[in-house]
Amino acid sequence: MTIDWNEEGAPPGPGHVVPSGPEFEGEVDLTTDYLGLELRSPLVASAGPFTGDLPSLRALDAAGIGAVVLPSLFEEQLEHESTQFEALSQYGSGANPEAVTGYVPTLDDYNNGVSRYLALVREAKKLTSVPVIASLNGVTTGGWTRYARLLSEAGADAIELNVYRVAADLDVSGRQIELETLALVEAVVGASSIPVSVKLGPYYSAFGNLARQLADAGAAGLVLFNRFYQPDINLESLSVGPHLVLSTSDELRLPLRWCAILHGRIGASIAATTGIHTGKDLAKVLLAGANVGMSTSALLRHGPDHTATILDELEAWMKDTGYASVEEMTGAVSQRTVREPAQFERANYLDTLTRYASTFLQ
Question: What pTM value is reported for the model?
């Protein structure tokens, strides 16, 4: 897609200024606002194994990360903990803990339950100078309200609610799923004294409408998009298991599109995640309208110090292009500001196929 500016002019405000003149020679301002928090840079380490490791958190902080999202605390863990407590409290009454709890996946290598998770929040706050965002992963209202309060008390600066749901029940409609998601967000927001962002998958029938409803329900931010890890089949054992493949920059297109469509149209911050590996990747999502870009795969592949590489590349690009600040460039190529807004919709599909066919037939 070619960047072209709206003849009627960009919407007012510093986030929609077209760069002009020679390259910027001063120091660029990388600060940005996300969830009402001032971040020193627009790169956030999203939830992953390394954000649960204290030495890695120190390294991310030293490399210039804007904020960190701790590994997710899973709904299954909360249910398991609650059921174990109930079983222990009824010890000797004939209760069978195994029958009550059923099977709960072993998650000790990722995080170790509620008490240790709260300790991780406290330690992360002590060791880093950046906002620490706790992550809750689940789909039902359950006991989230209690744990949202505990995370606030432990010192978390915000909560990222990771709604990881596969709509596999054929009797459940899309509207019902949306209503349950909205109820979950309202419950967590109502129980929290800190901002709540919502991390979602892209598989809703009318994502833009749901995004607006979530913002109206109190979500301070949306994280686009949850990268669903797909199962695979082992042909030797005929068993089903997970298959993890780290992302690449090619996966940036989907969050890029929706950041551009939603920018300036909902009352919530926007974070882009999946596919951010370089400074240019980060520049693209900021131009589209994201307030921050989140990275996991790139940092897992190259280590926490890769944070500095991404930010250095972003800063160099900004200087070459003439942008003095992240605020100035945010949303400059959103759907509201480009000459052909349909390029973010169906027209881009037609244009892509036409261009490819022309190249192929030459």
Answer: 0.80
Task: Report yes or no on 133 lying in a domain.
Answer: yes
Taking phi over 0 as left and psi of -120 to 50 as alpha, with beta for the rest, 94 belongs to left
Q: Please give the helix or strand (H or E) that residue 58 lies within, else none.
A: helix 54-63
Q: Are 281 and 293 contacting, i.e. CB atoms less than 8 angstroms apart?
A: yes
- Residue 107 belongs to a domain: yes
Both ends of the chain: CA-CA distance in Å? 21
CB < 8 Å & 24+ apart, contacts of 296-303? 296/45, 296/46, 296/47, 296/48, 296/247, 297/246, 297/247, 297/248, 299/45, 299/48, 299/50, 299/60, 300/48, 300/49, 300/50, 300/246, 301/246, 301/277, 303/59
Confidence of residue 19 (pLDDT cuts 50, 70, 90): low
Please check whether residue 104 lies inside any domain of the structure.
Answer: yes
Q: What is the count of structural domains for the chain?
A: 1
Cα 21 from Cα 32, distance rounded (Å): 24
DSSP-assigned letters across all residues of 280-308 = HHHHHHHHHT-SEEEESHHHHHH-TTHHH
Per-residue DSSP letters for 132-199?
EEEEEE-SS-TTHHHHHHHHHHHT-SEEEEE-------TTS-HHHHHHHHHHHHHHHHHH-SS-EEEE
Beta carbons of 296 and 271 less than 8 angstroms apart: no
Q: What is the CATH number of the domain that holds 190?
A: 3.20.20.70
Domain of 88, in residue numbers: 19-331
Count CB atoms within 10 A of the CB of residue 190: 12
Report if residue 74 sits inside a domain: yes
Q: CA triplet 124, 49, 46: central angle to 5 degrees?
A: 70
3-class DSSP state of 229? coil
Most confident of the following: 18-22, 53-57, 106-110: 53-57
Strand ranges, E, within the chain: 32-34, 37-39, 43-45, 67-74, 132-137, 158-162, 196-200, 221-224, 231-234, 239-242, 269-273, 292-295
CB atoms within 10 A of CB 333: 28
pLDDT tens profile 314-330: 999 999 999 999 999 99
Q: Angle at which helices 279-288 and 253-262 pack, to 10 degrees?
A: 30
